[in-house]
Specification:
Chain A is mainly beta. Chain A is built from no helices and twelve strands. Chain A starts with a strand and ends with a strand. By secondary structure, chain B is mostly beta strands. The chains are: A mainly beta, B mainly beta.
Chain lengths: 114, 114
Amino acid sequence: AQSVTQLDSHVSVSEGTPVLLRCNYSSSYSPSLFWYVQHPNKGLQLLLKYTSAATLVKGINGFEAEFKKSETSFHLTKPSAHMSDAAEYFCVVTGPSGYSTLTFGKGTMLLVSP
Amino acid sequence: NAGVTQTPKFQVLKTGQSMTLQCAQDMNHEYMSWYRQDPGMGLRLIHYSVGAGITDQGEVPNGYNVSRSTTEDFPLRLLSAAPSQTSVYFCASSYGRGAADTQYFGPGTRLTVL
């Protein structure tokens, strides 16, 4: 069965410092993995996705994530946080119905202080 | 393109009432889905459709019905509203027939059941 664990419910950083949002997954097959972002009172937007090509995936707004099969992790990083990055971030894996459905993590709220 | 639209934005129901949440997309997407978002729970899949005339259940389908008579529309029906259905509901669509394609989310419907 597929599952996603986001290891932190909240992460606080200062503007200009690095961002690390952690995600571990489990899957019975080779999944596709995603990070989606939700700004306050908005719908979700795709940040980046891994679909079995390069293990280092670059997304929008300077975010990137590395797929590590041996560690079953897909952590999201950004070298320098901006105030506009404050939002909730969701790690997502395909399954349990193969590639027909998605399983979402519970989310990590990123707080950015000046 | 309007993208994915949802109506209404807000709704208050009494226990036992029924209603339909509307979702439409103008991108000719095959895949459409409904999620509910509850605090600390991430998004959970209610129902999904891989094309007109084809629907299937997700993780939390009880109390909800869907149909897909056209490519554009995917309404979600609450048969007899219960307080446990108080939530924010998101509709999403994607180009292919699977969930691994980029999902485009609507702005959400905030439902309160008294």
